[in-house]
Amino acid sequence: MNLGLRNRAGGALALVVCAVVFLSGGARAGDLPAEDVALLERLTWGISSATVAQFKRLGRDRWLDEQLAADGETILPERAQEQIDALAALKAPLLKTVSAKDQEIRAANKLEDPDQRAAARRAYQQSLSDIARQAAAREILRALYSPRQIHERLTWFWFNHFNVHQAKSNIRLLVGDYVERVIRPNALGNFCQLLSMTVRHPAMLRYLDNASNAVGRLNENYAREIIELHTMGVGSGYTQRDVEELARILTGVGINGTTRTPRLRPAHQTLYHRDGLFEFNPARHDAGDKTFLGHEIKGNGLEEVDKAVDILCKHPATAAFISKKLATYFVGDDPPAPLVSRMAETFKSSVGDISMVLRVMVQSPEFREASRTGGKFKDAIHYVLSAIRLAYDDKVIRNTQPIQSFINRLGQGLFNRSSPDGYSPLSTAWNSPGQMMARFEVARQIGSSAGNLFKPEQADAATEPAFPLLQNELYFRFLRRDLSPTTLAALAEAISPQDWNVLFLSSPEFMRGFAGRAP
Amino acid sequence: MNRRELIKAFATLPTLTVAGRVWAAPATDARLLIVFLRGGYDATNVIIPVSSSFYYEVRPVLAVSRPDPDDAMSALPLDADWGLHPALRETLHPFWARRELAVVPFIGANDDVSRSHFQTQDTIELGQAADGTRNYNSGFMSRLVTELTRARPIAFTDQLPLTFRGTTPVPNVSISAVGKPRIDDRQARLIQKMYESSELAPAISEGFRVRDDVYQTISRELTEANRGAVSARGFELSARRIGRLMREQFNLGFVDVGGWDTHINQGGASGYLADRLGELGRALAGFTEEIGTAAWRSTVVVVVSEFGRTFRENGDRGTDHGHGSAYLIMGGGINGGRVLGEQVKLTQAALFQNRDYPILTDYRAMLAGLFGRLYGLQTAGLQKVLPNVRPADLGIL
Predict the structure, then answer these.
(1) Cβ B172–A419 below 8 Å, yes or no?
(2) What percent of chain A has pLDDT over 90?
(3) pTM for the whole thing?
(4) Three-state secondary structure along A108-133?
(5) A440 contacts in B (CB within 8 Å)?
(6) In this predicted model, what pLDDT tens digit does every residue of B169-193 receive, in sequence order?
(7) CB neighbourhood size of A382 (10 A)
(8) For residues B17 and B6, what is the distance between their CA atoms, to the nearest angstrom?
(9) Buried b (16+ CB within 10 A) or exposed e, A134-170
(10) Residue A390, CB half-sphere, CA atoms under 13 Å: how many?
């Protein structure tokens, strides 16, 4: 440690020394080659001593095997799991919640007294927002503390890829279930399965208006975005005709928020499907034959959708588009074409095995080379989560609300992206002058104190004492050696531990993640 | 007002100073704000083709009725062929009468038929050809900054929009959420030092440069009960702030506002789209109020969107992605009160791919023509801003 800093930092000194002593009693990080530090920084939500310990225990190969396993089980630290268990709104079956809420708003709208009516509507809206906040809290706790960090990164990636916006209609009720049953179980599994499940979830069908798409009342919104954003990508050879044909295929794919089944002609009854809120209603479906991307699809109800999903999933444009997006997210804004093409080959030969595609990426020389030169500029959520993981390590936070406000302030709130393209995977979308100013302000908030992070939401609960300890063992062992002389010089001018934190979290090195270079 | 008058009008303004930048000799100066309606606004129901019986035939639910002084829900008269949506009665229609509002129908990116929001927004912001290799680090507003000697550009957006990406750093500010900066001057100095050799250095020094100025200008809202600005909300509040900032500090701005992708239940004379338009109208009128009479004379506002929507309504009382749009152009010194650019009689045969407005004026040609008049840019300069574009002089100025 730099003695010059000690002298100038004054008050900072005692605290820093104490911190090192405290930590030495816990799990020691030990040494880790630069390449492994870089790997952890790239693939997780930020380095933490729990992750380092896990990595050292398993070794690089086994760690990657476990991290990339599609069917692993997420076991959270008890303190995190008990907070999730307390999120009552997420436990009821979705259909029950939705039909109860529908009744609630119908009753509210019938109230004669305008004040009562307004109050009842406000209560309804408030309850929806509470439910979505609980879903966001669950995601944040898992992202921070799940030992399956790559799975967490991919869960965020796929939610963002198949984005829905909570502000539309009653999606606040649906979004938690959407992540839980569609995104999470398939995040490292099979892309085709994932795609097929998004097509059957009410959150997506509501968000992109397919719930209103019916024969004679065609709405091509969802059809277009499936092709353009979810699978093949724009300019990959499909036509307006393909969009319209897919919209026809998707007619009747919708939502039924009641427990009733529509009365149908006998010919339609066998084609009818229902799974929770999801409904395929043949009476709303265009029964004619279709031609989609050069394939003839005979009119045959929901089977047409499965065929279309299969065609899209196996289309070479999809393999290329998805591989490039993954590489852009993990490797860099302009990922090397040979890497993307090898990933796409694996995507094709494995018919959409996400884990295998990722393995190609992680074990590539291009990935190693990109990591060696420092990470990619973090987007807002990566920035905030990595700061919290480093500052508090495995001391589990008690309140996710401050984290939600940080990422909202930085323009990347969970479930808050209004347009279906999701948040940009490009670093240039996050480092404009205005965004850098906002990031420094958030650095000040995170670095100055624990704020409400350890203040449970229950009124009678006491706040746990905590301090964002960034000059910790991980810092001294792995991160400090990455800092440039100019960064070290600026840190040496810090006037307090808080001030040091603010500067460290504002540094170019922290913005990009660490490569663990030897000095 | 012609360009000489415009320059004269500008010369009467007080000298503008901005910290940290030294300005080259003045060539010309005028203010320009681009307002991007993201989502593809339904131009057909805003600038309404009231002389087209085909319009009334294929929009049985959505159509806004022909102008009728006795019907508050009917279109407001523009000329024999066009009307304005009634939600703009109090806000934008008076600008038409004052010749401070012009409309350009059948406009858009004529080489982009992707009907993709994101692709076409990019096309428009980049101002490059839609096909072929595009340079995503070269937006047309950034190239304009390079060509102007006195540009003080800013994006009033959370992210730096593509149109301002380029060689000159352009500041951006999240205009709906301006707060008091808590990073103090000492910390700001140390942070800038850490980024000395980073590629982000210009962005960061631009950020700190405008941060305090913007806050100071906007925080005066809190102390002055000024012309309703305190009670303004949403996009109107943003636009009023922009008016202040462009009166005092900036002369080339970009702002965007979303919520125009109306696939279902968009409403006609009233309803969802009408509400959005009401807010847009209040925003633009509020902007002109805040920028003030003197500055308004040398200001031009161009309202654009990525594409128009299907001429026919869809099965859900909405409209799907289309092609041609209609842009609004406002300014205290423009030759307004007119429908500009080539027009076509709206029958089924006139539709592009039997579905959308055709594009008869390419937006790049319109902008090149405007920049030529507004800034006195010659062909060589215009070619750098909008390469391979033949300027269309629509007589805006």
Answers:
(1) no
(2) 87
(3) 0.88
(4) HHHCCCHHHHHHHHHHHHHHHHHHHH
(5) 183, 187, 191
(6) 899 999 988 889 999 999 999 999 9
(7) 25
(8) 20
(9) bbbbbbbbbbbbbbbbbbbbbbbbbbbbbbbbbeebb
(10) 31
Which residues share a beta bridge with A275?
A: A278
- How high is the ipTM of this complex? 0.91
Q: How many CA atoms lie within 13 A of A247 on its CB side?
A: 24
Length of chain A: 519
Is the pLDDT at A361 greater than 50, yes or no?
yes
Nearest-CB residue to A209 (from B182, B197, B316):
B316
Give the end-to-end CA distance of chain B in Å, rounded to a whole number: 6
Contact B368, B389 (CB under 8 A): yes
Q: Up-side HSE of residue A331: CA atoms within 13 Å toward CB?
A: 27
Positive or negative, the CA dihedral B197, B198, B203, B208 is negative
Q: Which residues in chain A (400-429) have CB-CB distances under 8 A to chain B?
A: 409, 411, 418-419, 421, 424, 428-429
Residue B230 has pLDDT above 50, yes or no: no
Rounded alpha-carbon distances, angstroms, from residue A281 to A519, B88, B138, B177, B260: 65, 41, 48, 45, 29
CA-CA-CA-CA dihedral for A386, A387, A388, A390, to nearest 10: 80
Q: How close A168 gets to chain B, by Cα (Å)?
A: 11
To the nearest 10°, report the CA torsion of A155, A156, A162, A163. Answer: 150
Whether chain B has a CB inside 8 Å of the CB on A209: the answer is yes
CA–CA separation, B142 vs B125, rounded Å?
A: 10
Burial class (CB in 10 A: 0-12, 13-18, 19+), A354: buried
Buried-exposed string A85-113: b where 16+ CB fall within 10 A, e elsewhere: eebebbeeebbebbbebeebbeebeeeee
Strand A253-255 relative to strand A278-280: parallel, antiparallel, unpaired?
antiparallel
* Distant-in-sequence, close-in-space partners of A441: CB < 8 Å, separation ≥ 6: A409, B179, B181, B182, B183
Rg of chain B in Å (alpha carbons):
21
Q: What CA–CA distance (Å, rounded) separates B329 from A117?
A: 43
Strand order in the sheet with A253-255: A253-255, A278-280, A273-275
- Please give the Cα distance from B260 to B306 (Å, whole number): 10
Token duo for residue A330: 């993990």
Bridge partners of A295, per DSSP, are A292
CA distance B278 to B87: 5
What is the residue-wise DSSP string for B283-336? HHHHHHHHHHHHHHTTEEEEEEES--B-SS--TTSS--B-S-EEEEEEETTS--
Q: For residue A78, what are its two tokens?
A: 């008890």
Residue of B nearest to A505 (CA): B191
Phi, psi of A215, rounded to the nearest 5 degrees: -60, 135
Rounded to 5 degrees, φ, ψ at A296 are: -80, 130
Give the closest residue to A445 by CA, choosing from B212, B207, B183, B219.
B183
Nearest to B321 by CA among A161, A223, A321: A223
